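Hey, resending since the last one bounced:
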Amino acid sequence: MQERDNIFYDLEGPVSSKDNAWDVCKKYVKDGGKVFPVISRYDDLLTLANKEGYEPGDTLGLIVPFLVEAGVTEDDIRTVSAEVGLVQGIREFFIELQEEGCIVWIISTSCEQYALSISERVRVPRERVYCTKFQLDILRRDIGREDLGLIREVREKAVELYHDDLESGVNDEPIQKLLDSFFWEELPWSRFGEAMAGVKVMGGRRKVRALQRALGNGYLDTAFVVIDSITDFRMAQVVEAAGGIALAWNANWYVLPYASCGVAAVDARAVRPLFKAWREGGRPAVREFVESASQPEDLEVGPYYHWLVGRDEAFQREMLIIHKKLRTACRGAEVAKLG
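The structure tokens again:
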């Protein structure tokens, strides 16, 4: 492994344009288009509260009961995965990188049925993919009639708590009350809760450990990671602190303050000049490129480049507006709002 030849990507956002769990819920779970945003908001609340033992991105684990109640299978997830669009230019970019001797890795909270499907399409070998092991078909065997009744009741109440602007915090208190009781008091004592406890989502600190395993004998200051959301902020923290590059791609507020620099664009190949600078001259070369980059000719597609380290919150908020616009252009308004 050569220094600075490895590039690490989050999957949903920087590689695929959608959120798999969201798509599966919308397609198979009754009122899933309302249930999932409520669960996603709850995930944000737990992360921001730094709940012990909880990792950002554990939304995937939290939706398991609702997938099981709906009878969703692993094949259903694969079906949805096959229909998901890729970020413009990402497949070509990954192929070019690997032809040049670079090593592309994917570190994602996504379930393996989805992550491996997408990685195959963008030509990343499965041995370079870290994701969530997700044996949904086995979990479905451990659900009892009483468990199904409880899950159905909570799902119906979650639908009532849906709001078009959950990020405003308008329903945070009732959401927390309902789901705290369900996930930490009622469900753990059920047979299904015991089985579900085995689902370990690849988010937060687990992403950091996956990054360290992938680097092997390498150091974090040789890491170049492309990230976009709350599941990545711990990885951004450690890479930035070590002197690597944490690149925020069409990012939301949960990760922008922790990133080294940002790119807002619709074409994945906007990352190429940054990674080229990184390989040739390390962090100083990346900063030099970013700070000398001109405004995009087309403001609707980018790319916009900006250095984030040392900038105040007002600047970061300005960048958030740009990232939100391009994030929405790439992913659609519904998915762009998710943490």
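The mean pLDDT is 90.

Sorry for the duplicate.
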